Amino acid sequence: MADISAGRTSHQPSVAWWRDERKRGLIWQIVVVAILGLCLWYVIQNMIDNLRTLGVTLGLDFLNAPAGFAISFSLIPTDLNSSIGRLIVAGMLNTLLASAICIVFATIIGLIVGICRLSRNYLISRLATAYVEALRNVPLLVQLLLWYVAILQLFPNVRQAISVLDLMFLSNRGVNIPRPIPEDHFGIVMIALLVAIAVAIGIAHWARRRQVATGQQFPSGWVGWGIIIGLPLIASLVLGTPVTWEVPELKGFNFQGGMVLQPELTAVIIGISAYTASFIAEIVRGGILAVSHGQTEAAYALGFRPGTTLRLVIIPQSLRIIVPPMTSQYLNVVKNTTLVSAIAYPDLYSIIGTSLNQTGRPVENIAIMMAFFLVISILISLFMNWYNKRIALIER
Amino acid sequence: MKHVKTLVAGIALVAGMSTAAHAASTLESVKAAGKLKCGVNTGLAGFAAPNDQGVWTGLDVDLCKAIAAAVLGDSSKVEYKPTNAEQRFPALQSGEVDVLARNTTWTLSRDSQLGLDFRAVNYYDGQGFMVRKDLGVSSAKELKGATVCVQEGTTTEKNLGDFDKQNNLGTQPVKFKESEQARSAYDEGRCDSYTTDASGLAAERTGLKNPGDHIILPEIISKEPLGPAVRAGDSQWADIISWVHYAMLVAEEKGITAANIDDVKAKNAEGTDGADAEIQRLLGITDKMGEGMGLSSDWAYNLIKQVGNYGESFERNVGKNTPLGLDRGLNALWTQGGLQYAPPVR
Known about the structure:
The structure holds 2 protein chains of 2 kinds. By secondary structure, chain A is α+β, with helices and mostly antiparallel strands. Chain A has 11 helices and 8 strands. Chain A has a domain at 84-178 and 247-391: MetI-like (MetI-like fold). In chain A, the strands form 3 sheets. A 4-stranded antiparallel sheet of chain A has the order 1-2-3-8. In chain A, strands 4-5 form a two-stranded antiparallel ribbon. Chain A has a two-stranded antiparallel sheet with strand order 6-7. Chain A is globular. Chain B contains 13 helices and 13 strands. In chain B, the strands form 3 sheets. In chain B, strands 1, 4, 5, 6, 7 and 13 form a 6-stranded mixed sheet that branches. In chain B, strands 10-9-11-8-12 form a 5-stranded mixed sheet, with helices on both faces. In chain B, strands 2-3 form a two-stranded antiparallel sheet. Chains A and B meet through helix 1, helix 4 and helix 10 of A and helix 1, helix 4, helix 5, helix 6 and strand 10 of B.
């Protein structure tokens, strides 16, 4: 009888290819891939044929046509003459902006709430529990609508806007603040800022090495922030403050001039951050509980205070458990931003929806949107996997 | 080995199916299914909205019912598929609905680039603006720098952009996916103005907190001929849809209503003195006109009896006695100074 583990040793009698397990496995895999490829080809060919019967062709040339519609918020300058491609890029930037801000806030709030839930203080831990349970169980779209309506109703009409020192105005059209207009030597202040940041990082490294070598501590945090704020300030004072401020004024229907933080973006940030933070809080709590209690007892025995134990002993070990699910939450933030068109934030989904309607090309538009989300999600996953490897404990 | 045989058979089947499937005409597939799949609005008062018993009513709904009565003999054999602004065209293109009666504007790009056909206009409309009375604005050209709430993905957005460029207004649009959100944001004061088709403005105003505080500005900034759409390449089905609408117009011209149609049919029976030949042809008493379109000869009789003529449908859904309170205006018959004009039935 031929040995079943054929291929493991070099001088086995050769068996027929259909009896060789490895070759059989390979053939099955090729067949499955071929069938999948065939199905995909059939589906795509069917779609192209049906579109051709209707007289519709596929192509990306519609991106150059002038869009003819404006959007309410954009990081790159757009106007009524912009092309559809440019507006789609503006939508992508809006989605990225909202996602980035929400990820940062959600992580910070989630960390705090997760740690609070484990506190021995009855009030704090119960409040954190209530927060998590309330926000986890209500659908995100409902929460977004609630925040938007709350902001619209809480703030007064633009004609009765709350004015703070006549510089900042709060109304239900947004928060209007003065806009800085850089003048001639502003570049030098920027360079001073970059230099200050580099110096602060350098001081932090030096202080850490000195502490490892001699055990002496150095308040590198305070000194670093002092330099980052102080150096550009001194530079601007020396140059005669090369910045003028454009103050918003109520003219006609709205405030003209200045910068405005629109209620749409505010509602998006608050809504998505609060919602995702409730999930992240549970992940953090699980990670912290997973660290063996022996670590805490050993740290107390060495004289560490509870706050220091948490910061230096528990959390670094719990990161192993926290980071993988965090990737999913961050991806959820990016995907949940597609809901914000319900509250008038012009993200990619909303602009693709308009473009789809006006150009009548559902296939190309949806493909662009899917490709964008796929790329962003893969980038986030790659980064989080790299970070996960970096903080993993190396078992000896 | 037997697995390999089924596998090979499977591959052959898939490869065989990859040739283009034989396309059945829409009329045949509607008759085979026994019901009409009608794409309608998710909820626009007066055009297509479910009432508090969940029954769909509206001007577009009446058109769907009339098509079902003409094709299947029963106006209740309709399946209403509510679609929002972005789903409506893919739903029609893919075959999910047979006809799109969703207050859709007939434009050049939609006619030529989407693989759709428009043939009849069941409501001539135009885009307008609504503002609060206390803003003191009496014309849309005074809206310089105003914020405008608008539903995205519609011709409304594009018309706003065109009007803005032409009059150098610098308006700031705030775009919502659903019109309910746009209206409530306007109500809360997020925007100075709300824009959509004039019929939609009347409908949405009824849902505001204080309808009396808002006025509709006089400018109509665009032409919005709203009508049913069908897939391109099926001219028999397009004929049926448009002639259902024209039959309702001819009925109103001739004074035929759902209530008196049997009397009219009796008075115009074959061979009667003084009978109106066009009524005879319309109701299938002489000259079986329906057969040329693949329908039975009482196609118009069924639809007028079960749904009524255009005037009845208009007054029932958007007329003076409804909360919308719209005039016939452009939608009056051509004999009364409006634009609704049907080709002759002969």
